[in-house]
Amino acid sequence: MTLYTVSFGSRQYQVNIEGSHATVNGEPVKATFQTLNQYGLHLLQRGYQAMEFHLCLQDEETLQVLVSGRRLVAHIANPFRRKPARCQDAPSGTLTAPMPGQVVQVLVEEGQAVKEGQPLLVIESMKMQMQMRSPLTGRVACLPVAAGQQVDKGQVLAQVE
């Protein structure tokens, strides 16, 4: 049995993992978790619903979660015993495509100052549009995509320094 205290902002959860079973705040989690690649891409399935998300270990107690175009930072009170692989060759200001799609709109230019969470561009995949937001406050150093361009899952969309 492993017990973690996980915080997202002001929200705090008690996560208990026992073998392949987990509870969050004492409630059983009925879902499966699957690693899709070595770069941090994962799949969570609950019944007929599936959600892809990207995990990136920032340090021993901080995990960055990218899901549905949003960036969440999880603070873990007890470090993982088995740590997820670190993001390889991807600085923390790198914004990558969470799925294949098309760039619908570019909202910033190279050199522009941006704030953490500010929308940088919009991508569309399977008729769903997602705002891709800046992972940190800084300046757009690289913007290698344009409106109308097709992108692959994991492709770099922007670099913020």
Mean pLDDT, nearest integer? 82
Helix content: under 10%
Shape descriptor reads: globular
SSE pattern: EEEEEEEEEEEEEEEEE
What is the level 1 CATH name of the largest domain? Answer: Mainly Beta
Structural class assignment:
mainly beta
Which percent range describes the beta-strand content? over 45%
How many individual domains? Answer: 2
Per DSSP, the total helix count is 0
- CATH fold-level assignment of the largest domain: PH-domain like
Number of strands: 17
Low-pLDDT runs of 5+ residues are: 79-90
What's the arrangement of strands in the largest beta sheet? 4-3-2-1-9-8-7-6-5
Rg (CA only) = 17 Å
Give the distance, in angstroms, between the N- and C-terminal Cα atoms.
Answer: 40 Å
Biggest β-sheet description: 9 strands, antiparallel
- Level-2 CATH architecture of the largest domain: Roll
Concise description?
This protein is mainly beta.
Describe this structure in words.
With 161 residues, the protein is mainly beta. The chain folds into 2 domains: 2-76, PH-domain like; 94-160, OB fold (Dihydrolipoamide Acetyltransferase, E2P) (Beta Barrel), CATH 2.40.50. 0% of the residues lie in helices and 57% in strands. The chain is built from no helices and 17 strands. The chain has strands spanning 2-8, 11-18, 21-24, 27-28, 32-35, 41-46, 49-59, 62-67, 70-76, 94-96, 101-106, 113-114, 119-125, 128-133, 138-142, 150-151, 156-160. The strands form 3 sheets. It has a 9-stranded antiparallel beta sheet with strand order 4-3-2-1-9-8-7-6-5, with no helix packed on it. Strands 10-17-15-12 form a 4-stranded antiparallel beta sheet, with no helix packed on it. A hairpin with a 2-residue loop joins strand 1 and strand 2 (11-18). Residues 79-90 have low confidence and may be disordered.
